[in-house]
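Example record for the data management plan.
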Amino acid sequence: MSVKHKSNITAPILVAAVYFILILSRIIKMTELSGDNEYIGVIVLQLIVFLLPAVIYCKILSGEGYASRLRLRLIGAQQVVVALLGALALICGSLLLNILFFDGVGQSDFSLYNTFTASHDGSAETFLYVTLAYAVVPAVCEEFFFRSLLCAEYEKYGLSRALVMSSLFFGMIHFNFGQFIIYIFAGAILFAVMYATRSVLGSILVHFLYNIYGLFGQGLANEVYRTTSSTELFLLLLSAAFILFLALFCGEVARLYRRYSRQNKESDYIPKPKKGRAAEKRRVSLTEIILAPPCLVCYLIFILAVLIM
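Corresponding structural encoding:
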């Protein structure tokens, strides 16, 4: 079944519903479950919050060719290299932003949506549970929702709109105003990886690696930063690493584009609009999209959640 809809209205309604469900999860206090039930609860919650509404949305509004717009494709070795370099650039960039804006390298405890905090006792079993609940499942669920689905909805108005809105909504879902700029930066990197690899699996891989760093590497980064004898040297080396990985990432993306060209693949990432509808879509400005009434509801939910959570 296909339903005609305005993505700049229906997409933020979906986002607002997800925000609301996520806030409810804090009220019911699923994290009070103990032992293995805690991890299972976090996993089930993410499936309910992100995948279930997304699947229903796609089912109702999907039409001919909609599935291809979600970019659910396998990736090859070169796309994996792009994703790995994107992950390294994201890790170094987020560290750099934390030092520049917050005089630190980030929080020691890894949490989801400022609600669920990961804890592990060092055992192999707990390691697997934590990795699944706090790294694998969030990467899959969030990337399908924010990159695959939201970009498919907003890209019809232009890639800049898809970039801004997917990154903005992704930043707000974490309900952490202090780290908001970090999440916006992460959203931009994940967006670039998905479009470069032409698959949401690329951004899922980056997101997974970043979560692994947050779970098991953030504490080490904090310790190194606190014990360094020269903050300026640490900042210089980190800046150099970020520039290096970003340059390597861009270079590998350029190589990937040349490969696409040799294979005569379509260069236009945005599905061609139906006849007679192109002009209508061009009239939707970024300001109009950002200030759409459902978006204002999302902003209000975000502000209230930050104040009460």
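Summary line stored alongside the record: Residues 275-281 have pLDDT under 50 and may be disordered.
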